[in-house]
Every structure is written in C-alpha cells, then in structure tokens.
Amino acid sequence: MQRTAAIFDGLLRYDAAPMNVLGLETSCDETGVAVFHLERGLVGQALHSQIDLHKVYGGVVPEIAARDHIRRLLPLIKNVLEDAGVGRPDAVAYTAGPGLVGALMVGSGLANGLGLAWGCPVIPIHHMEGHLLAPMLEDDPPAYPFLALLVSGGHTMLVAVDGLGLYDVLGSTLDDAVGEAFDKTAKLLGLGYPGGPALATLAENGNGDAFVFPRPMLKNPGLDFSFSGLKTAVMLQVKKSTTGGDIDNVRADIAASFQSAAVDTLVSRTIQATDKTKLKRIVVAGGVGANLRLREELAKRFDGRVYYPRLEYCTDNGAMIAVAGALRLSDGAEPATILAKARWSLESLVPPRAPEQRKAH
Length: 361
Ligand code: KG4
Ligand code: ZN
What we know:
By secondary structure, this protein is of the alpha/beta class.
C-alpha cells in the first residue's frame, strides 16, 4: 500500500500550474466531462444524461447508473478532448463523493488510470464544492466571502464560504433534500422522473395560494431545514382530492402551492443566514437553483447580489468539477490517493497548500 502511494507520489508530482484540466462527474445519473483551461476558461464539455434509463423505475437505480458511466465515460472523454483540440490534459479532476459509491468508483478508477498513463496530477473533488464553485465558470464570478445555498436532489445546505476549501455549514436538511421533495411531490402528482422541472412547469398554471402547506422549521432557531412534513401535507391533500374526485382540477394548484411553500422556506432561511452573517453575496447552486420562482423570490427579498451558474451548470456537469480541480491545482493542491466516498462532509475540506509551501514539503 505504502509502495503504491510512493509510486503515485513520484509519478504525479508536478511543479507548474497545469493549464488544461479534465473534469469527470459520475456521482449520480449524469456522465459529465469537461476541459477547463486556467486562462481560456471552459474549452470543451459534454454531458450524457441517464434519465431514459432510470425513468421506467421512477428513480435512479445505482447499479444501472454505474454500468452506464462505464459505457459512456471513455467515448465522451475522447470526443471532448478532440473537439477542444487537447491531446493530453495537464491534470484530471474527478468527483470523489458524496454520491452513489458504484458510480463514483467508475469516475475515480478511470481518472486515476488516465493520470497514471498521462503522468499528470489527479485531484479528487467534493461534489458540493463543485456545485458551489460553478459560478466561477461565468465571466463575472463572485468574490469571497459569500453565502452558498446548495439545493440539489441529495442536499440542502447553507454554507458560509470564506475562500477555496474554507466552508462553514450553517444549516442543512434534517430529512429530505429539497430536490427530493420536488421529485416525490411530482411522483404523487403523476409526473415523470426527474420531477423537479416537470413540477415547476405544471406549477406555472396553478395558484400558489390555493392550499396552505407548512413552511417547516422557519420558526425554529438555527438554520436547518426539514421537508418531510411538507411532503406529507401534500400527500394528504393529493389523497383528499383524489377521493373527492377533483384531483385533475387541482393538480396544478397543488404543484404551485407546494412550490411556493418550498421556495418560501428556502428564501426565508437564506435571508435569516445573511442577516446573521452579514454576507452581501449569495451563490445559489445545485439542480433546484434552476427553479425560476426561487430566483424571482430571492431577487425580491435580498438586497445584495445573487450569483447563479447558467442553467446547464446548475444541474450535475463536468465543467464544475474541472473548474474546481483547476482552482485547487493552481492554489497548490497535491494529488491524493484514489477516493470514492458515498458520504463526505463538506466541512472536512481544507484549502490547498500555497505553492511556496508545496516545494518545501
Ligand atoms: O444537482 P442535481 O443535478 O443533482 C444532484 O446532485 O442531486 O439536482 C437534481 C435535482 C432533482 O431533484 C431535480 O428534480 C431538481 O434538482 N431540479 C429542479 C429543477 N430542475 C432540477 N427542482 C425544481 N425546479 C427546477 N426547475
Ligand atoms: Zn449535484
């Protein structure tokens, strides 16, 4: 084991900041590949969504996800490198967790194999760090410090971000993630998988005040979230309307009322967090960040600036992993041993070492 680590260490040590960083995302049901160039920005990317494979099951099947990543990853990498005119990247970054462990192992194994073959550094990236750094792909990125609202299918978190690797989790969900609540509500309303975007579309035709669903936790101290009570309230209403025979008439109203309760909860907690931290910038990232009502409501209620990645980088993608890898490497990150962690605390991350410290080590 030690010997392997020593071989890796010798092979992967590098001195110059790498220019082209290949990023691989395989934590769930999207295979994302991208190349980020430290000066030119994003030079290539591709995404393969597995939605068609999983929708017949109504949710992601981990084994099917892992198998499809194996099928897709190498051809996607080849295409992205060819299109970007990059023969051999200078570094590889990959999602090492949190996520489905079988799916993560595909990205981790391949990234480390490619790093060995290319003799370049390989950097494990925390999936949520990728999400919170996604706005760095834009022309006008946020400066530190900022508050990050991370809202995806697996996470709901408020994080005070002081710099790269300096993350203080102020609040997170005690049960369901908000994206999961969107997906489950969509399922109850007979919408397909993934439900979030379908539910948001249906909600546009409904009245958000038709039903008063709970805004859980808002009166509790602290900044945690809980979405299971909201989900249960929606389930009871769906049952009642189905039994009463008018479900078809109220489906859009239920969707809109659920969406306004979920959005109100997220926005109220976020404002409480900015009041507490006095942070003047908010980054919203993760799949639910694509929700237009959430964007509108935050703009109305927050007087600082809100940064979003463009819509395609809100949901899982390779570009956010490539940019996170590039930022970590240019700040002196060391290559690490192979990682695939189903659970991984964001707060356990540390900033990369400064380049001058790296030489002395
Ligand atoms: O970040 P992401 O792509 O994957 C995870 O890391 O989970 O987020 C996916 C989640 C799903 O729950 C999906 O339903 C939700 O984001 N989502 C939305 C919207 N677009 C995607 N939820 C609400 N409104 C949307 N427009
Ligand atoms: Zn994600």
